What we know:
Layout: H1 3-8, H2 15-20, E1 23-32, E2 45-53, E3 58-63, H3 67-75, H4 86-90, H5 98-108, H6 117-137, H7 141-144, E4 152-160, H8 165-177, E5 182-186, H9 194-208, E6 212-216, H10 223-234, E7 238-242, H11 250-259, E8 264-266, H12 273-281, E9 287-291, H13 292-309, E10 313-317, H14 322-332, E11 341-344, H15 349-353, E12 365-367, H16 380-386, E13 387-391
Parallel strand pairs: 4-5, 4-11, 5-6, 6-7, 7-8, 8-9, 9-10
Antiparallel strand pairs: 1-2, 1-13, 2-3, 4-12
Helix pairs in contact: 3-6, 5-6, 6-13, 8-9, 10-11, 12-13, 13-14
Amino acid sequence: MPKSFLHYSILIPSADCERSMKIDQIICQVLRIPAVEAKTASSQDAVLVRVRTDSGLEGIGEADASPEVVKAIVDAPFSHNIACGLRELLIGENPLETERLWQKMYNGTMYFGRTSVAIAAMAAVDLALWDLKGKHFGEPIHRLLGGKQHDSIQAYASILFGNDGAETAEIGRRWSEAGYRAVKFGWEPMGESEAVDIDLVSGAREGLGGATLLVDAGCVWDARTALRRAHAFADYNIEWLEEPLREADIEGYVWLRDRSPVPIASGEGECGREAFRPLIERRALDVYQVDLSRNGFTDAAYIRARVEEIGARLCNHFYTSPITAAASLHWLSTCRDAFLFEDCVEESSIRNELTIERIQAVNGTIQVPDAPGLGVTLNEEVVKALMVSESG
């Protein structure tokens, strides 16, 4: 069989593959950095899922959610057919059958899952399954997803606002000097008042000069206030206004997107295709932000197809470890319009030291991994030093 055809048909495992490899262990590890380092961001802790097979292969994944809650969902024993822990559902299964196993996990957790943290836990397992699949076939995940359309992507530095406009300007200058041509500022103290909000965005623009500016409001306004801010921020030439409303306010996003002078972005908190479905069907956003550690490759591929179908744009969300950074790059590289990559620049050991490979932009551009699977290797010394609990 020609190699090119083998690559195309790789999602259909052979009978030999079905007989030769089974999942025999699913390990869940909770990591947490010392409190002195911790910040109000997702890189202060992590939950790792490690799927191991009887052939000796291991795949790794993570979820961006409460680590202990995710661990409980993995560890939970059988209750009944639609309320079962993920480990119980998957031991003995063929890890290459990712679509079928996603459906099995979804159906088996129906009474406590469907659109929230159970999907995030499934996503961690799904990342590990795809990592394992890539290692089994000796291929990067982007090839298993259909093929990358980009070898590298422009990255934006993702960071929190300063305490005021002046401090935000300094942060902007720092990351511009580090080579980033785009920077996103987010969350507190935005939302305290109109004066504070405009001061923050004005400072960000001052610090960045002509670089691309993205603003993450952090779900702080009602729709009418958000529209006023969108008009005010348009004077500072922002690339998008992210999460101005509560994530569940679909009608508000539809109303705002139809009236806003700047693009509206959201989606980072959504878990799975069912959570994204109303946003896509109502064409509520200009930019759909997909977090691989809340959606996994299986549902992220479906979401990609739906968003591209309606002509909207896609971006990743990422604020955790290099595992999600690598996963995001594999997925985003398969999108037609991969115009920006969110690059968390938090200075934490989980963000920067959890894997041997450093997955970060250089001079504002980030390369797509080409090694088999995710293309990253856990630093076991860091895992051991930060681990607070383990099961499996």
